[in-house]
Fold these 2 entries.
Entry 1:
Amino acid sequence: MTQPVPTITLVRGDITDQHVDVIVNAANSTLLGGGGVDGAIHRRGGPAVLADCRKLRASHYGGGLPTGRAVVTTAGDLHAQYVVHTVGPVHQPQLTGEADRAQTELLASCYRESLRLAGELGARSIAFPAISTGVYRWPLSDGARSAVRTVREAAREPLFDIRFVLFDDAALGHFEQALAAAP
Ligand code: ADP
């Protein structure tokens, strides 16, 4: 029997406008909010999101959520059931060889861990930002390829609606190219 293939779509816009089961946040390790997507999600999600983040810090992540890992909170006032917060790697252009592969693996881990948690929650739809491509300076072309490749490999039922929400035309273009490339 063939497995139903989750559909990957690209949306240009603000991730906080999405109506999905899970919105993924490109968080920082403190889990206390920040700029970019993180700031937008906390603003629109409201105090319930921050309250859950504080509880997670107190119970498990006082030293910070490690890079490549993900945790779940309520989505507060967002049009979603949950927010999955994941910490992308800060891109280090000087790394080569094994060290470069390791930082790429951390970025892939953000997408994989988010999908794993969403699957455990029974989510059918999920919206991702382009993790690490803002303040964390990951080049968009490579970030898009890594995101699309990882999500294609790791997506499982019950997820069937997977969206990348890109904030501007440049990001959208890179994701279009990555999606059009052979898997
Ligand atoms: P990181 O620290 O992981 O780099 P950022 O939030 O700085 O995270 O940026 C990640 C990506 O999200 C960037 O491509 C940025 O342009 C984009 N972005 C910023 N705000 C939003 C938003 N509200 N919705 C979707 N994407 C956003």
Note: The chain has one domain: 7-181.
Entry 2:
Amino acid sequence: MSPPQVLDNALGAVGKTPLIRLDKIAKDQDLKCNLLGKVEFFSAGGSVKDRIAKAMVEAAERDGKLIPGKSVVIEPTSGNTGIGLAMACAIKGYATIITLPNKMSLEKEALLRALGAEVIRTPTEAAWDSPTSHIGVAQRLQREIPYGIILDQYSNVNNPLAHELTTGPEIIEAVVATPASPEHPSSGKVDVLVAGAGTGGTITGIARAIKKTHNKDCIVVGVDPKGSVLAKGPDCDEVSPEDNTPYTVEGIGYDFIPEVLNFQDIDQWMKTDDAESFAAVQLVMRNEGLLVGGSSGSALSGALRWLKSDAGRETANTEGANVVVLLADGIRNYMSKPWFLQIAMEAPPSALAGKIAGILNTK
Ligand code: PMP
């Protein structure tokens, strides 16, 4: 462990997140493999996207594309990239405009405004290439606003690169540095990675780091919500491209294929729905004490379903195999969402409830 140091600013607290065993869930699901969560809400801005915001801003600064006091950073996002950018821009002195589809939570808008960003809401149902979509509106503003710049997470190489250089290596180092023990057998390598895809930068970058430098045979499983078109390829038998039913989970899935998503790095896809995602969030909270967001539930439910499928059963039954699930953000972003209030407040009563009622009602 390196000794603690004074950081220059909050950007020094981006990333370097823990990899945490999800042992109770693994045991309940009869898994012999290790189930490990890469828990990204520990990052300064609260999500995996802080890393790319920092990387894109720093790269643009190196290229002389940003002028403090003048540049206006404009970005279409599902919120988390915006929060990372607004944090970086607050620190560095750039104005920020975030375009955000209506479905994204009030909490994200409030955080963006708290960080000093302007927020423009756009219709969720607008197709990506419509002038009224979050992408279309950002482009229109950029054309009109002097010194307006879109760093563009959908095509910016620093998006996947940030994960190839930080998220991936952190996962590899944690697995390699943790010795196998009789209590916790370990193959010493990352055998499976499961992550949701929005821009696809996270899964593409981590997959590259693992396959290039650590374990070329690592199986990379992408998770895509029903209603999105990202899942495709010979191994995906669950694709229904014409299905554009709305879904509630935020941050994953799209109606177009972003440039940074590299299908070659993804071995298999799992389609998920809202109900299983939110049930998995409740499972992680109640069993592992981790306050994750909705897309983390999607990633976990996709992982558990994959481990029970023909493709994943061997891994599930292999002692010491390491299955890493990317948990992209925290519940802070969703506290007022009905789905969260439902899993929190309408959870089945604990064994204590009857006893408490008995005591209080007899007084
Ligand atoms: N989960 C959440 C909550 C997100 O905000 C995002 C980013 N859109 C993702 C997952 C997916 O990350 P990526 O864009 O790198 O695919």
Note: The mean pLDDT is 95.
